[in-house]
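Problem 3 from the worked examples.
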Amino acid sequence: MSTPETLMCLLYKNATIYQQPYSHYHMSEAFVDDAIDFMRDCQQQRKPFFLYYGIAQPHVDVYSNDGFRGSSKRGRYGDMIREMSWSVGAIMDEVKRLGEDFNTISIFTADNGPHLQLCNEGGDAGVLKGGKMQFWDGGIRVPGIFRWTGHIPPAKISDEVVSQLDIFPTLMSIVGGSVPDDRKMDGQDISSTLFNWWPEPQPEPVAVKQLYKQHEVTHSEPRMLVFYCEAQLFAVRYGSYKFHFTTQKTWTKEGNHAEPGRCGDGGFPLDNNIECASCGNLMPECFTYYKTPLMYNIYKDPNEAYPLNGSLPEHKAVLDEMMPRLEAFKADMVIAPPLLASRSTATIPCCTPGTFPDCTCNYVYEGPVPPPGSASQTGHTSEEFLEMISSHDYDYSMWYD
């Protein structure tokens, strides 16, 4: 993206527009500074804090500031990941400096997998199939890192099936609270997974236990996670098995490269492609629907490359066990109207209403920072802007190889 869209790209602090359109340059420092100031204010006022730090990376447009540009063998994407890593480290270092390390739970996660349509600059899901806007595991399996010094054992890895829906009930359990009882909560308390060195393995389908006689059959049920896009059912995870009722066109880097005009030299994306990004109602040619769902064993086939033969007794038994639970889930679910279905362009933020639609304020262009004292397009000097977002000193060198 060579020029930000003025009416779409804004940088707010509380209710004030600080930049319109925003500039990537020094954005990470701006976010880190604001997070650090927030934590310091809370400590000075002796208040507990909840900080949601919405990292801008990795996302299009790919960017990094001078401290990281050209520092990675992975190219622009790697530079951006290093800047993201630095920003997380800077915040964690401040938690330690404040002496709140033993009182603070930190969670690092993401909303989706890599944007594969962006060739070599959209990330990589490794062995997993699919990516962003898809329900293959490459699109829905994301990092889940929990840290609480003195409470959560360090350097431990769990292969338990958990969901971001579990964060709320788990935190409520830790602080001695309770979740609302006036609605159905899909999330579960996963405290035992976080705090135990060797948590009990999650149950497998009864049919599997009976077939392989792994251990005594109990009445505990395996975890079931249901994946919808709007009102369309796409997939179900049930223990070590996964069922696809709807699948999307699967993107691969090789496939992108084969399409003219998609990828340039070295995998450089030539457009911001979001093809097949709907839930199926607008682009039916991108989707395949199954009366009998595709079935995979995720532990044995993490790439979801080899669907199981659902007619075999051992596989049909698992499907027959899962379906009643799925029907009960669907019967208990209330589909609410999409939150973004009624968007209106009648109200458009503009930091300089008298100049609409040419809304521009405190703009700092991509590239070298203007010399000290030089004025931006609205009369704000570069010193004023950089003072606002660069009040802390940062050492980039520690993040280099």
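Problem 4, a separate protein:
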Amino acid sequence: ELCRKTNLACQELLSQRDRYRRQSPLKKGDRIYTETSANSPTLTILYSRKKWKKPFAFKINQLHYQKLKDRYVQVHENEGKRDTSSQSTTTVATKDFSSYWPPSSLISYSYHKKDDSPSKDTILDRSFNVIVLALLLRYSALSGGQLLDDLRGGGMQGSIHGSVFQVLQTRFSAGNSSWLEGFASPFNATLSRFASVFPDLDWHFGSVGTFFDCTFNSDVGDDSEFIEANPPFTPGIMQAMADHILRVLHYADVNKRRLTFVVVIPSASKDNPSDKDGAAVVKKAASCSFESMVSSSHCTKHIRLRAREHGYVEGSQHLRPTMYKQSSYDTSVIILQSVEAMNEVSGGNTLEQLEMDLRRTFASRHKEELNDRKRKRKSQC
């Protein structure tokens, strides 16, 4: 029933996509504005129309709101400065998203009209708030629609800890190499470049398109490329991801390119009969994609993290007071590399050292966060 409703919601979202192209979805008399409270960490976006008795109100953490705004401004400021010779090796076969509303030219020219016309900053703030409002609705719809009401469904949009990215970048990156976060959203993205499900809006915050639009087959100098892929844990998406990764790695071998994927998915081996019924169902559904990756000749390392000994960043972190969650299932970190990339680990560090660092940084922070909140409450009493 949840899948059916989500499918219908996605169809509706696709049908409304043109509403956000080239012109503002706000009608005459509509208002969109924000309110904050001195003692609250959240910010409220309010959307009202003349005929409505009261506005719709959507809450978001102030820190995440500011993060989105910083990304928005940075992307638009860099839009006119982009040099194709310095772009990464990621090839994205998507539309030119800069044609979508609000046009990036808004930030690059002065707004000259009558004195009573809205200023450039006012237009940009209004544009930004409309986009954030649309993002909140879209990503809540992907979670079954409950995310904005009672925070249910955030697990489908969880992400790995920022310190895990730091380890990966330190152990792997060398010289001009670039990183891409394969499955993310403007709300949970850690890296400046990421792939996401709604690039027509997400490009305003750094999205390069969907993961499946990225072909990774460009040849720019001697650069290596690294992609972290932590997809929604649904069998169809995981299978499509595995097929896409193995296909582009084959092309990388043919073209003698250095390409590395770090994949984070639930462990789905079939050799653990003690699993409970629920876990067994999950693993059975995910076993095809799992086995195709760990048995591939491109697999150079498989790290298994035990349940409740590691954790993630909560997918609804932009709405809730806490950030971290403990994992209920075993997780596999699978490193897949092209032949040219198999000796890529920098500074003489081994894959065993990488595993030690990943286990340390993947450790669950949920209990520690709860204890910190308790101590703060006691200190305020």
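Solution to problem 4. The radius of gyration is 22 Å. The CA atoms of residues 37 and 324 lie 24 Å apart.
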